[in-house]
Design brief:
single chain; alpha+beta; six-stranded mixed beta sheet; four-stranded antiparallel beta sheet; 3 helices
Length: 169
């Protein structure tokens, strides 16, 4: 049997668009305003221009561009690489538009090009998120961890992973 890779885009929801636009405006606007008002030393000018560019660059690198299912592996496509998640211990997979409700980011990105990293909620405990649109959230319950993703077609994504889960049992 040949495993066929299935790809899914990671569309941006309204909240991510708003957070990203606001973040860009703050990260670039505040230092820009400070520079335009004058009274900045050469060191301050360097800090006001370099640090915001580094922050934007790092956040951009970790953006979630899409997902690919290859056999028992889920690839989370980033800007320059792919994060691989082993699905061999997949217990359940469900579409849950409220998966991120009430969650708290413990380490990661909270809305500049993605909602990704480590989160915690009363519903799941600690979990990893690779999310761009809360309405499309799919919860992957693995034996040792919970992963939340947001593919473009969550129903089809769940169906494909359910088939993988049922054939691996």
């Amino acid at each position: 049997m040949v495993d066929v890779a299935r790809s899914f885009q990671a569309p941006w929801g309204k909240l991510l668009k708003v957070f990203s636009l606001f973040g860009i405006l703050v990260i670039i606007g505040v230092p820009g305003w400070l520079l335009l008002t004058g009274d900045c030393t050469a060191t301050e000018v360097m800090l006001y221009t370099v640090i915001p560019i580094i922050i934007l660059f790092i956040a951009l690198l970790f953006t979630v561009r899409g997902y690919v299912i290859k056999g028992n592996v889920l690839g989370v496509r980033r800007l320059l690489w792919e994060t691989e998640i082993d699905l061999s211990s997949l217990v359940s997979v469900t579409h849950d538009p409220k998966a991120m409700t009430g969650s708290i980011r413990t380490m990661g990105n909270g809305g500049l090009f993605s909602f990704s990293g480590k989160y915690r909620s009363g519903k799941f405990g600690s979990f990893r998120a690779y999310v761009t649109d809360f309405r499309n959230c799919v919860v992957l319950q693995l034996s040792e961890q919970v992963i939340v993703v947001s593919p473009e077609n969550p129903e089809m994504f769940v169906e494909i992973l359910s088939n993988i889960q049922s054939t691996s049992c």
